[in-house]
Design goal:
CATH topology of the domain at 83-211: Rossmann fold
Helix content: 25-40%
CATH class of the domain at 83-211: Alpha Beta
Distance between the termini: 76 Å
Strand order of the largest sheet: 7-6-5-10-11
Strand content: 15-25%
CATH architecture of the domain at 83-211: 3-Layer(aba) Sandwich
Number of strands: 11
């Protein structure tokens, strides 16, 4: 038995309505390209593993309003969909915005964001400055009630219970890196949206790749010059 779609935007299973036979994640991802994360679905929780050497972590994401599962060797547990985060990796921002989750960013934990909208929210104080130089100030993250901190792996970040290491920077191609939007979607239950976004990204990339292949052997020599008087 499955519900119509994943619960998003902070939605929880209502009190007394949990049913162990229901698949609460009918919208799923299938990792086809990325090499440094995996996900396994159960009816009311997902087990997400970051497998990059030296950055290995195992997270359990359980649907809000359902029992907290007991998963062997799990490092951390998070209730999803999350509603309040600190973002400490600039490269994650486009994916969060594409998923429609900018409003869940409560704190910014690294150098200034390049997104004009997010930068404006940071200047106005709607997003709290939770950075300590290039690192995250976890005291601030806790004070603003962040449920999770997205960051690249650091000794402090790896050990802190709020931290999730996002290691897309260790991938080696456009598609292996781009598929990490699906990783991010797991925390918002927005797998359906991520699947659609990544499919478009993949088709666009493959279109350009075919065009590049067409011109193999028909290359032009180009000279760049500058006019000087």
């Amino acid at each position: 038995q499955a519900q119509a779609g994943n619960l998003v935007d902070g939605s929880c299973v209502a009190d007394g309505q949990y049913d162990g036979s229901v698949d609460y994640f009918p919208d799923k991802i299938l990792v086809d390209f990325a090499t440094h994360f995996e996900v396994t679905y159960n009816n009311s929780y997902k087990v997400v593993e970051v497998t990059a050497p030296g950055n290995e972590q195992k997270f359990v994401l359980y649907q809000c309003g359902t029992p907290v599962p007991n998963v062997p060797d799990a490092d951390k547990y998070f209730s999803v969909p999350i509603t309040k985060s600190v973002v400490a990796v600039t490269t994650l921002l486009p994916w969060i915005e594409q998923l429609g989750e900018r409003a869940t960013i409560a704190g910014w934990g690294t150098v200034a964001p390049y997104s004009p909208c997010t930068a404006s929210l940071l200047r106005s104080g709607e997003i709290v400055d939770a950075a300590n130089g290039f690192n995250t100030n976890y005291t601030t993250a806790e004070a603003i009630g962040a449920e999770i901190v997205f960051e690249s792996f650091t000794p402090e970040g790896g050990l802190h219970p709020l931290a999730v290491a996002v290691t897309e920077y260790l991938e080696n191609s456009v598609l292996t890196t781009g598929e990490w939007i699906e990783f991010m979607s797991l925390f918002y239950n927005k797998e359906a949206e991520a699947n659609a976004i990544f499919t478009t990204m993949k088709e666009t990339y493959e279109c350009h790749e075919r065009r590049a292949d067409f011109f193999q052997g028909n290359n032009y020599s180009v000279a760049w010059v500058e006019w000087s008087t």
